[in-house]
């Protein structure tokens, strides 16, 4: 872990600047409610549908902030990242909107659909072997060749400031909240939430939701330092990555609690949401509802904001349907 | 067909009254767009998400208008209908909100999920055999016993006035439309759309979308009189019923065109919408996008409103996934 003095911690003003910068390029996503899910949980739930962003995930906020914050000289060289998930497509999308190059290093084993989406948004993919060594070597080479600005999926102050704009909208769209729940993987969304709410509404409890089978943030939180797992495995495949120093800063300072849910609980909550909210969302987004259902007494009678983080799902293989 | 003099044709004022009456009980559903679907079709598409109504369908508008328009004496006896679809659950939902009885006659072969939903909303189900004779006999008996006011799923002026409120909101939420496309079964939504737009925005073309395999409205439209099919079969199971005199009045006077789509085209459009709009919707709601994709030249460059009519889907058997 780097020394704190190395880190640039984004500020509330950075979040406000980010919001102004990205507003023309992102959607102010709607907030949905369900009487049925309220009755089931005993809480009053508000769901912010970031799955309705054009590229299907909240990550377009941070990516757009990074891309549109570049000066013209850097912008000409474009951006670069390594990711096989929503950050790759969201960064490509943002770069496409600015008309600059985006280079993405992806394991050759990444799903074809993910590669197709990146390419649809004009992203240039360089494939690596599915190992950390290969990814780092390949990425260093790509960056040296292109000079693209590295936009980390979450351990980047511009990205965290961008993600923080979601909670700002959410607070404007609801008449006060007691708690905010978001899934935690690398911690980008949770960090943005902490950044915004710690100034805007410090009375709101911030709860992170994590899969039992990838509970490194939970264990880090209990231990008081970052614990990174080696290759965790969960259906919530947006939540596999570990905390890094910047996100740990926010998690350790501002998160009230982290709760975990099992694979079955996640799948049940996912199906419940599809059925009653009628939105298509990823397994990762179901972890918050899963932990609310599992810890009802903690949420009962409260006004609870839930961030639905993304909606890019392989519709051919849904976890509750047994295939051939 | 009854003589025109028997019919009570709802007026624009009836729609305005309906909107005031139902506003506390329904959702003002959001309008969604997708850059991807715009590029694919060459049109500018706006989707009104009536699948986001609490009971999952636009039919809550008409049902609520009928239920809350009853005087207290009639209300005490409740309402009654025959339906195995969204009208049954939406009428039960509206009756529950007013605290009055709702009796529903349903074929004993109706899906268990549909029965469960009606019961969850306090509806009382009387089962009949899956034949028109049995349904009519059973319904007559139930109505005689309960005195419940018959609320037809679509051939009822209160219902059509209620459905018309959807287009009024839609016009408020968009900055002008050139066309409005909705699926057509019995014609309740299309009739409400005609009722509203023929006064509010007569320049908007009204297009109905119908499955090829249940194209009785299309053939009626071409023939100039109602043609009813005997037991059509399509995946768009919300569109199986025929036009009746009231809906025929609106369709024959105000609809510009009816287009049809094949089963495969409907399934493709359904999957496309789930993937890119990230909403859970019924096969019936995919018929509009299917006919737009099939007749691109007719819609290119136009601002087109599409009504997503319902989102009550059996998530265990999606049409593009082959089961065991």
Q: Can you give me a brief rundown of this structure?
A:
With 324 residues, chain A is of the alpha/beta class. The first copy, chain A, has helices spanning 12-22, 35-41, 59-68, 72-77, 86-98, 112-120, 132-146, 157-173, 188-200, 216-223, 245-254, 263-276, 287-294, 296-299, and strands at 31-32, 44-49, 79-82, 102-107, 124-128, 149-150, 179-183, 205-211, 257-261, 303-308.
Features:
homodimer, 45% helix, 324 residues, alpha/beta, 2 domains, 4-stranded parallel beta sheet, Rossmann fold
Structural class of chain A: alpha/beta
Give the fraction of residues assigned to helices of chain A.
40-55%
Highest-level CATH class of the largest domain in chain A: Alpha Beta
Q: Trace the largest sheet of chain A across and list its strands.
A: 1-2-10-7-8-9
Principal-axis shape of chain A equals globular
What pattern of helices and strands is seen along the backbone of chain A? Answer: HEHEHHEHEHEHEHEHEHHEHHHE
| Alpha-carbon distance between the two ends of chain A | 46 Å
- According to CATH, what is the topology of the largest domain in chain A? Rossmann fold
Q: Please report the two chains with the greatest interface, counting residues with C-beta closer than 8 angstroms to the partner's C-beta.
A: A-B, 28 and 27 residues
The name of the CATH architecture of the largest domain in chain A is: 3-Layer(aba) Sandwich
Most strands sheet of chain A: 6 strands, mixed
Oligomer: homodimer
Would you report the number of β strands of chain A? 10
Cα-atom Rg of chain A, whole angstroms?
A: 18 Å
> Mean of the pLDDT scores of chain A?
95
The number of distinct structural domains of chain A comes to 2
Tally of helical runs of chain A: 14
Query: Hey, roughly how much beta strand do the residues of chain A contain?
Result: 5-15%
Keywords (chains A, B): Lyase, Plasmid, Pyridoxal phosphate
GO molecular function, one term (chains A, B): pyridoxal phosphate binding
Cofactor (chains A, B): pyridoxal 5'-phosphate
Pfam family, one (chains A, B): PALP
